[in-house]
Amino acid sequence: MTNEILRKIYRSLLVGAIIILAMLIYILFFHKPYYGKNRVTLNKNTLEQKSPSNKIGNKNFTEQKITSNTVRIQGENMYKTTVAITQVAYPSNFAHNRPNAVILVREDKIEDAILAGRISHEPINAPILYIKKDYIPEETLKEIERLKPRGVFLDGNIKIILIGDVDVGVLKKLNDQKLKYRHINGENTFSLSLNIDNYLAAIQGDHKDAVIIAPIEEPEYALPQLAWNAHAGDGFFFIEKDKIPMEVEKALNNRHGNAYIYILAREGLISKATEDQLSRYGHVQRIPMGEDAYSMAVGFARYKDVGKNFSWWLGTRPRDFGWGISKPGHSFTFVNPKQWQIAVTSSILSHKGKHGPMLLVEENKIPDAVKNYLQTLKPSYNSSQEHLYNYGWIIGSEDSISNFLQAKIDELLDTREYK
User: Fold this and answer.
1) Fold of 98-206
2) Nearest partner of 227 among 360, 102, 361, 368, judged by Cα
3) HEC states along the chain?
4) CA dist., res. 232 & res. 122, Å (int)
5) Segment 106-128 mean pLDDT
6) Whether the Cβ atoms of residue 216 and residue 238 lie closer than 8 Å to each other
7) For 291-295, 315-319, 344-348, which range has the lowest pLDDT when averaged over its residues?
8) pLDDT in tens, 223-262
9) Could you tell me if 224 and 301 are in contact, meaning their C-beta atoms sit under 8 angstroms apart?
10) Are 89 and 352 in contact (CB under 8 A)?
11) Torsion of Cα atoms, 357 then 294 then 378 then 66, to 10°
12) What's CA 203's distance to the chain center, in Å?
């Protein structure tokens, strides 16, 4: 090999090394990666997801009304509103902001949907979307595709948790879509609640000591606990006015007399005699202000129970149940119980959002209990950079909560005084 050839090889290697060094210097010191490729942008007329993975387009959305202290989440119908909620909670443009699974439940089964709410909490980390008994609507399928659930590691990487009684067409569609699923069903509402409780105990390694009880006759009383259980994942069961169903007794027996039981109902819906029966399974407390579902939500938002828990000296942990919100600086989700489907789905905002209680309002009226509560939480002005703020999610379109009512809620959350 001649010296001339060696010099050519040397020059080629030197040029290559200089190019590689220049590229490394650029990457390390000058390159600014653009993470907004899959950003969500809000324009005047639509909330549009600009992402290659989003095939829904802007047809799912109407204008999202925003005030100083509130943001409305809405869609053209119930299915599209639930999609709008999940898109707020799970942008799904990175692995860490995708859910592990998606919970599917029938849109005509309020009890099933409320029971499914506690599944949303970790380690499952899943929003609730709706299906028909015999098929999965296109809006729901497209949102599952956008969410791209990662899989529940503790349950064989399943991506769908199917709740309640469905026809074979739903199962066939999930199989066709190659979506691995877990189907939790029961002969009735009470057996379904037992099966959900045992499933979560298997995932978490134990049955939760804290148990919430609500009346099956008026399931709207159970709506406020959805936000808490999306946040905390405690136990929940429906019972009858004068009877504890056998399946619920089995679930309470699994706590071995160590349950802390919290009743969301007035005495007319769950009797004193039934409350006494519940005391056989642990400590029972009736959460105050249960005159109706609206005041019950306020009572639950204000309620707090702390203290020692039943446990051995090794691995003891304190009991800390309830929001206990009695001062400003918090967030709330406002829903109309008449549109319970979107109310149930909105509970995910207390898991992947601003973590706050659910309050119930009417289409054009704030119930007195809710109004009085918000007035006690109204922040007092200190200075623009130091005072506390309250915040509200407004769930649904104007036929759920009117624009007028959104403005009134904004006033109640604001630091300013309105004459």
Assistant:
1) Rossmann fold (3.40.50)
2) 360
3) CCHHHHHHHHHHHHHHHHHHHHHHHHHHHCCCCCHHHHCEEECCCCEEECCCCCCCHHHHECCCCECCCEEEECECCHHHHHHHHHHHHCCCCCHHHCCCCEEEEECCCHHHHHHHHHHHCCCCCCCEEEECCCCCCHHHHHHHHHHCCCCEHHHCCECEEEECCCCHHHHHHHHHCCCCEEEECCCCHHHHHHHHHHHHHHHHCCCCCEEEEEECCCHHHHHHHHHHHHHHCCEEEEEECCECCHHHHHHHHCCCCCEEEEECCCCCCCCHHHHHHHHHHEEEEECCCCCCHHHHHHHHHHCCEEECCCCCCCCCCCEEECCCCCCCCCEEEEECHHHHHHHHHHHHHHCCCCCCCEEECCCCCCCHHHHHHHHHCCCCCCCCCCCCCCEEEEECCCCCCCHHHHHHHHHHHCCCCCC
4) 8
5) 96
6) yes
7) 315-319
8) 999 999 999 999 999 999 999 999 999 999 999 998 999 9
9) yes
10) yes
11) 70
12) 19
Short-list 299, 340, 196, CA closest to 254: 196
Q: Which residue has the tokens 């029961």?
A: 186
- Kindly report the number of other CB atoms within 10 A of residue 225's CB atom: 27
Task: Please tell me the total number of residues recorded for the chain in this structure.
Answer: 419
Can you give the pLDDT at residue 13?
Answer: 85
Query: Nearest-CA neighbor of 264 among 230, 197, 216, 331?
Result: 216
Query: What's phi and psi for 392, nearest 5 deg?
Result: -140, 130
* Per-residue pLDDT tens digits for 332-378: 999 999 999 999 999 999 998 788 999 999 999 999 999 999 999 98
Nearest CA-CA partner of 339 in 288, 284, 402, 414: 402
